[in-house]
Amino acid sequence: MSKVPMTTEGAQRLKAELHRLKTVERPAVIQAIAEARSHGDLSENADYDAAKERQGFIEGRIAEVEGKLVNAQVIDPSSLDVAHVVFGATVELADNDSGEHVSYQIVGDDEADIRHGKISVNSPIARALIGKGEGDTADVQAPAGVRSYEVLSIRYG
C-alpha cells in the first residue's frame, strides 16, 4: 500500500484515539461482555449481543487506525520552507468574483474538516492550489461552475 500524507497534528490525534480505544474502550466492552454472560442464557441476552457488536466495532476501528498510522507519511508543516503551495500549507485566498477572503490548510483525507479550515489534499481546490505561489490565480471546477481564487499568502506551521 502506498504512503498517505498526514500532518503531525493528524498523526497525534490518531495515536490518541488508538490509545483510548485500547486502554478505555476495549477493557470496558470486555467488562460489559463478562457482566452480560453472568446473567445466564446468551441466546436471548440483548446486553450480550450489544456488547459483542460494540466489541466488533472497536476491534475494527483499532485495526483501521493502526493501518492508517502504518501507512502514514507524517509531514511537519513547520519544517517546510517553500515559496509555493504544497501539502501542509495554510493558504489565504481571495475569491476573484466576490472578493471574499478564505483560509485553508491542505491536510490528509482523514484530517479534512472544512469547519476548521482544513481541506483534503485530494479536494478540487487543493489540487488547483498545489504548485501555485503568492499572486497566482487558481481556477477550481465547482458544482456551480469555475471559481477563480487569487493566492494572497502561503504559510507553513
Unreliable segments of 5+ consecutive residues = none
What's the total number of strands?
7
CATH architecture of the largest domain: Roll
Order of helices and strands: EHHEEEEHEE
State the shape: elongated
Task: Look at the structure and give the mean pLDDT.
Answer: 92
In CATH, the homologous superfamily of the largest domain goes by the name Transcription elongation factor, GreA/GreB, C-terminal domain
Q: Order of strands side by side in the largest beta sheet?
A: 5-4-3-7-6
Radius of gyration: 22 Å
- Helix content estimate: 25-40%
Largest sheet, in brief, is: 5 strands, mixed
- Strand residue content: 25-35%
The SS-based structural class is alpha/beta
